[in-house]
Design a protein that fits this description.
18 helices; about 35% helix
Length: about 550
């Protein structure tokens, strides 16, 4: 059924922040390092950008806050908040050199990392050497890759030759990787400069091991939940500590931190990106994908890391589209499903308002909004995720748990115990429940009596990120207190319907900023597509993004 959404007057995109910034005099390395250290912050902090109040409210300008908080919002973008695509273009054109940009970001990391804790390992000397090699290659006129000279970072699940890959486990701190994960090798082959390894919860679940710091969300007063398990990726990307990052998603771990930190997160189709050399949580649910500050950047990185890998038999053989160029095709004629009850009931009013406004804007741009009814998940279908993930994790960790149980943190030790205690009967029931739930979603996208939509629009999360005590992230599951490693169980419950099903069936999702809460915390729109529909997701996300300014607003850290 065609929705009652009707095109409205388009939002103006003529504000200077939307276009390419005017070329400035080339900065010296000293200038760049001053920006990185925050000495120019006073010149780049101001009130909210115009055009935001229609979708979830514009963030308020605050004054008199502590230096650790966001005093207002960036209305001009210093180097560290440029997009990956912008920086790559300026490096390729010779307007910037990779070594200067890398030094600037390393300076910013040095300044902010003591408060934000986004990195587990910073690879400074190696990054600078690679950046200088990138500049030399450009000077010789060599063909440049899509990421040539741009500093990025990866979640510390990705093996990186010559560097420890911890996965958030204390017993892995001294284990040096002998080879690169396929995604790391592909990023570097495209010219990327790897700054370091980003913080993750232990084993990529919910809680942290006490041997690691907990990342701090850069919005608010550094007191908001950063999302799990790719929290370091979310924080580093949002705070301008890298130009993009990789995360993983087994039950929301690209989407949670992308939404919580106000960035773009793309969870690809299961198998679209190789998992070879990426530490497993639950292999049949694990996805690897980009976390960025624009849809274009996500499309570019996906184009680099996607594709069949002979080292991963589960990777898909399908050709990799030209995501970035196809992204420009817009949304005209796309059928986007919208279930108002599914997307707005038991959801914060400002989230419902922001997501509804985003769907209106997609209609303005030419998309056909189709009223659909998203199938309800039964209780056993929701519960199946924990059963399956715990059992798979227990199999993955069989060589170290329970033999080294005391070396695990409180939450992950409980999680592995649950997995080992799962009976074959319960595992079979959970498998059946997963297949039932995934199968009921198929007609939404593939027809056969269903809607046959191209994409589904809904919230990423039912609310903005909540205030959070990072010390509780070291705790286990406290059922009697209603907390899981510091996260209220009810908070997860509200958002379950937007998250786990797309890991069950391996469908791709795109999360992107769509507004702010009344107290200035980012809100997130989620677009979901059928298998291998990443091009459509990027088309719709990019078209929406070009009419808004949410992705151009950043926490003004000082």
């Amino acid at each position: 059924m065609k929705s009652a959404f009707r095109p409205k007057q388009s939002v103006s995109t003529e504000d200077g922040a939307q276009g390419r910034p005017p070329r400035q005099l080339d900065p010296t390395r000293r200038d760049l390092l001053q920006v990185a250290a925050g000495s120019l912050a006073a010149a780049t902090m101001g009130g909210a950008l115009t055009g935001c109040a229609d979708s979830g409210g514009a963030p308020p300008t605050r004054s008199g806050e502590s230096p650790a908080s966001t005093a207002g919002f960036m209305t001009q973008r210093p180097l560290h908040y440029k997009t990956l695509a912008e920086v790559a273009a300026r490096i390729a054109e010779g307007d910037l050199d990779s070594a200067s940009v890398t030094e600037a970001l390393l300076g910013r990391i040095e300044s902010l990392e003591p408060r934000l804790h986004a990195y587990i390992t910073v690879m400074g000397e190696r990054a600078l050497a690679r950046a200088e090699a990138a500049d030399a290659a450009r000077g010789r006129g060599e063909t440049l890759g899509a990421l040539h000279g741009v500093p990025i970072a990866v979640k510390d699940l990705c093996h990186t030759r010559g560097v420890a890959t911890t996965g958030g486990h204390s017993f892995r701190k001294g284990l040096i990787s002998e080879s690169d994960a396929t995604v790391v090798a592909r990023l570097e082959a495209a010219g990327a400069v790897l700054l370091g390894k980003l913080a993750t919860t232990e084993g990529a679940m919910v809680g942290y091991h006490r041997g690691f710091e907990v990342p701090r969300n850069p919005w608010g007063d550094l007191d908001r939940w950063p999302g799990v398990s790719s929290g370091g990726s979310g924080v580093a990307t949002a705070a301008g500590l890298c130009f993009a990052s990789l995360g993983t998603d087994t039950g929301g771990s690209i989407r949670f931190p992308s939404a919580a930190n106000g960035i773009v997160g793309l969870k690809p189709t299961w198998g679209r990106v190789s998992r070879h050399g990426v530490l497993d949580l639950a292999p049949t649910l694990d996805h690897v994908g980009p976390m960025t500050r624009s849809v274009r950047d996500a499309a570019r990185i996906l184009g680099v890391i996607a594709g069949h890998d002979s080292e991963d038999s589960t990777s898909l053989p399908d050709p990799v589209p030209a995501y970035e160029s196809e992204m420009e095709l817009g949304v005209s004629g796309l059928r986007i499903g919208w279930d108002e009850a599914f997307s707005t009931q038991n959801v914060e009013p400002h989230v419902a308002s922001a997501v509804t406004a985003a769907v209106n804007q997609l209609a303005n741009l030419g998309a056909e909004i189709i009223d659909v009814q998203v199938p309800h998940l039964e209780e056993d279908e929701v519960a199946a995720w924990n059963t399956l993930a715990a059992a798979e994790a227990a199999a993955v960790h069989e060589s170290t748990y329970p033999s080294r149980a005391e070396e695990y943190g409180a939450y992950f030790r409980q999680f592995l115990a649950t997995g080992r205690n799962t009976s074959a009967l319960d595992l079979a029931k959970a498998t059946f429940a997963r297949r039932r739930a995934a199968g009921r979603m198929t007609p939404l996208f593939y027809g056969d009596g269903g809607a046959g939509i191209d994409l589904l629009a809904c919230p990423t999360l039912a609310s903005e990120s909540f205030r959070y005590d990072p010390q509780r992230a070291y705790d286990g599951l406290e059922q009697d207190q209603g907390h899981m490693a510091g996260v209220p169980l009810g908070w997860f419950d509200r958002s379950d319907r937007f998250i786990a099903i797309w890991d069950y069936n391996g469908y791709p999702t795109l999360s992107l900023p769509c507004g702010f809460s009344p107290d200035g915390i980012p809100l997130s729109l989620q677009l979901v597509g059928a298998r291998l529909s990443e091009s459509l997701l990027c088309r719709a996300g990019h078209a929406f993004e070009q009419t808004q300014e949410f992705h151009l607003q950043h926490p003004a850290l000082t």
